[in-house]
Write a structure and sequence with these properties.
disordered C terminus; about 75% helix; mainly alpha; about 170 residues
Length: about 170
């Protein structure tokens, strides 16, 4: 397992080196990483406020919260160090989990919004690696957890007969 962890760290470092070669790269990565969570919160709030997308928005909220809480519980137990200066664990990424869950859930009920959120999730996840918030495995584990959370919410909500289209 250790060689895989080392490979993951090297891959994250390589991403940060490439981004670091761009004069605007590191600051753009930090800003994008910081905007990820508020942007998804705002998108879910707008979906909930609009009558046409309210049910999907509420499912997105449930999936995002379930994914974020699950990621936090796992991360606190695993305590895998982050690549940057933060002392808290990084595996799995809460941001990746929540954004993947929200994007997948949105895609089931509001396909256009879901596609936009999926793009935002991918960009935000890459930014979190580039900003040294996470290594790639943290992001991948969070995304998988988020997709599983979206599936669980779809099963519980029942309106989609348990399908998420994935």
């Amino acid at each position: 397992m250790r060689p895989l962890l080392q490979l993951d760290r090297r891959l994250g470092l390589a991403v940060r080196r490439v981004v670091g070669r761009l004069s605007w790269g590191p600051s753009a990565a930090r800003v994008t990483a910081r905007l990820m969570s508020p942007a998804f919160r705002a998108a879910v709030a707008v979906m909930i406020l609009r009558r046409r997308t309210r049910a999907t928005g509420l499912r997105c909220l449930a999936a995002g919260v379930a994914a974020g809480v699950s990621a936090r519980l796992m991360r606190d137990r695993l305590r895998r160090p982050r690549p940057g200066d933060r002392a808290d664990g990084g595996l799995p990424s809460r941001h990746a989990a929540a954004s993947a869950a929200i994007a997948r859930t949105a895609a089931a009920g509001a396909p256009r919004a879901g596609r936009a959120m999926a793009l935002g999730a991918v960009v935000g996840m890459a930014a979190r690696v580039a900003a040294a918030e996470h290594d790639p495995a943290d992001i991948a584990a969070g995304a998988v957890l988020g997709l599983a959370s979206a599936r669980a919410v779809a099963l519980v909500a029942g309106g989609e007969r348990g399908r998420t289209g994935a």
